[in-house]
Each structure stands twice: as C-alpha cells, then as structure tokens.
Design a protein that fits this description.
The chain is of the alpha+beta class. Helix content is 40%, strand content 24%. It folds into 2 domains: 119 residues, no CATH class; 234 residues, Thrombin, subunit H, CATH 2.40.10. The protein has a 6-stranded antiparallel beta barrel with strand order 9-10-11-14-13-12. A 6-stranded antiparallel barrel has the order 3-4-7-6-5-15. The longest helix has 46 residues. The protein starts with a helix and ends with a strand.
C-alpha cells in the first residue's frame, strides 16, 4: 500500500496535478530522498516510452485502415475511382510516408549518436581493478616447478581490488567488476588473515557484489567499528578511504565534491581523493567514521575526480536480497566506535576489516 501511494504521488507530480505547496514539498523531498528521486526518473522514462509507443501504434492503425480501404475499392475501381481515392487520401499517405522515412533515418542517426557517448564514457570512466604482478614469486614458482615436476605450479592472482566487512558473521562487499569472471576468490587483510570467499549476490547496475567467507576456521569478525549512513552526505564534507592499490594498505583523504557521480549519476558521489587501480570496492567514510559509500572508479584525465556508490544503495541491495540465495539475515553494525577518535586511531581500528580481494581465473 505504501509503495502504491508513492507511485500515485509520482504520477500526480509528473502530470502537474499537484497544488503549488504540495509540489514544493515533494521537490524538497526529492532532494533528500535518493531512492524516491531514482523512482521518479525511472517512472518518467517509462511514461515517455509508453507515449512514443502509443503514437507509433496510432500511426500503424491509420495506415492499416487506409490499406483496408484500398483493398475494398480495388475490386470495382475505375480510373476515376482511383483518382477520387487518391485526392481524398493523398495528404495522409504523404504524411505517413514522410514519418516512416524520418523514423528510419532518425533511428539510424540515433544509434550512431548513442554509440559515440558510450564509447566516450567507456574511455573516460576507469574501473579501479588492478592486475597483480609478482614477478619474483612467479619466477621462484617456475624454478620450483622445474625442480619438482610432480607438483602443479601455483596459480597467480590475475586481478584484485579491495573489499570490507559489512557484518560480523563473514559477509563482505566489493565492486562487482573486481570479481567478474573469477574461478575462485581469496581475501587477505593487513594482519595477514587469509580466507577463501564466494560471491553470493551481484548487483551489476550499482557495481556491487556481496561475498561470504567460505572457511571452516573462520570464527567471526567481532563488532565492526563503523555504521552505515542512510541519509545524504553534505557537499564539502571530509571523507577518507583505505584500500589496496598495492600490496600494502593505503590511506586516502579528501572531500565530497558532488552529490552525483559520473555523468550526473544520482546513485554515486564524486570525491576529491586521488585513487589508483586496486581501490575499487574500498569503503568511503565521513569524518565521523560513518560508511557513506563504496569506491567504484575515477574519471580519466582528471586527477582527484573519483566516484563511490552511495551506501543507501548498498543497504537497499542487502534489504532486497532474493530469498533464493538462502542467506541468513545479516546482522549489520549498530555502534560506531570510530566517532570522536583522531584519524590515526580510526585507521588502526578500521584496517582489520578492510581486505585485498584476489581473483583467480
């Protein structure tokens, strides 16, 4: 019932049926409610598509009616009859033909126009997944393989990123592009703890994947030191992250540059933190130690222009996990022990819950 009322409000807003005061209140709510804003955008796209479909169907029906009239009159048509018919329908047929030609050429032009931005966006948006290069260890493994041919050579990690714990019972999150195509996945933190994990759910739209530790020796993370922020963060807020652009954990700090991400994406933030391949999937926290996002990528050619998926969409994904995953309900952290601590103390507590994600193909 609540969902129905929300869509009823959206329709009234898009149709201009709200009173001035109600419209102003609704627009103020859109600026603070990320999910409602996304629903309005999607609903507008749906209505526009339906309107265009209706126009195409009306034109098709009109042409079919003309065709039926032509067939009915063909049986007893004389030159004079055809002349009368043509004079009667000449304008309609000409308009229909023009619309058809414009539709064909318009579609071809639109496809070409759409290709260009996609190609440009692909070139300008960089996913921060990195290739792991351990030349010395690989050389050692090769030498060991030569000395003992009976032992299979160990597989090297092909790609890696960052992930972090989201519940005490072994669930983590990372960017979905980090673990895409993986045969097996391992995680390792600063303290040297290593676990095999499996991907239990993926949301490619928001570039998020939930992982679960699949190791009988795992006894739980204990209390996580951070909580999830559900409302929008303010422009200019100080933010920071921990990640693995190299084998050692790296700290990055900056500010929230924009309430929207790449190309105006309302599901993400833009942040002024210099990031490198390997940072994808890392946590983005505010000055108080609240989790506000998940690092996803950066804009090529603009140093310090990076992006993070908002935590509201991570929580939405967790709350809407399909029952088919047979996952037990997650126990999310409720107490923020980072609050009020200086940055070095915050990082000391945080680093045990941030992992390098290693993917094996």
């Amino acid at each position: 019932m609540l969902e129905y009322r929300a869509y009823e409000q959206i329709e009234r807003y898009l149709n201009g049926e709200m009173a001035v005061e109600e419209q102003q209140a609704f627009e103020a709510l859109l600026r603070t409610d990320v999910r409602l804003s996304e629903q309005v955008r999607e609903h507008k796209q749906l209505l526009d598509s339906m309107q265009q479909y209706g126009q195409r169907q009306a034109l098709k029906q009109k042409l079919q009616n003309i065709h039926s009239e032509m067939e009915a009159e063909t049986m007893e048509a004389s030159p004079n009859t055809w002349r009368v018919f043509w004079n009667r329908h000449m304008q309609t047929v000409a308009v229909a033909a023009s619309v058809s030609l414009l539709s064909v050429f318009g579609t071809l032009w639109s496809v070409q126009q759409l290709k260009a931005p996609v190609q440009q966006q692909t070139a300008r948006y960089v996913e921060l997944r990195r290739e792991v290069e351990r030349l010395k260890k690989t050389q050692t493994a090769i030498m060991n393989g030569i000395n003992d041919a009976s032992k299979p050579a160990p597989r090297a990690a092909a790609f890696s990123g960052t992930g972090f714990a989201i519940s005490a019972d072994g669930y983590l999150v990372t960017s979905s592009h980090v673990v895409e195509g993986a045969d097996s996945i391992m995680i390792e933190n600063k303290a040297g703890l290593k676990y095999k994990v499996s991907e239990v759910y993926r949301d490619e739209i928001h570039d998020l994947s939930i992982l679960k530790i699949a190791d009988s020796t795992f006894g739980g993370f204990g209390k996580l030191p951070y909580t999830f922020k559900t409302n929008e963060s303010e422009l200019g807020e100080k933010v920071f992250t921990l990640g693995y652009p190299r084998e050692d954990i790296v700290f990055g700090e900056g500010s929230l540059s924009s309430g929207s991400g790449f190309e105006g994406d309302t599901t993400s933030y833009q942040i002024s933190i210099p990031l490198n391949p390997g940072n994808s999937g890392g946590p983005l926290l505010d000055d108080k130690g609240n989790l506000i996002g998940v690092i996803s990528g950066k804009q090529a050619g603009q140093e310090g222009a990076a992006f993070a998926v908002k935590s509201a969409y991570l929580l939405q994904m967790i709350n809407e996990l399909p029952a088919s995953t047979t996952m037990a309900p997650m126990v999310l952290p409720k107490y923020n022990s980072l609050l009020g601590n200086p940055r070095p103390q915050q990082l000391k507590k945080l680093k045990d819950y941030v992992f390098v994600v290693k993917v094996y193909n």
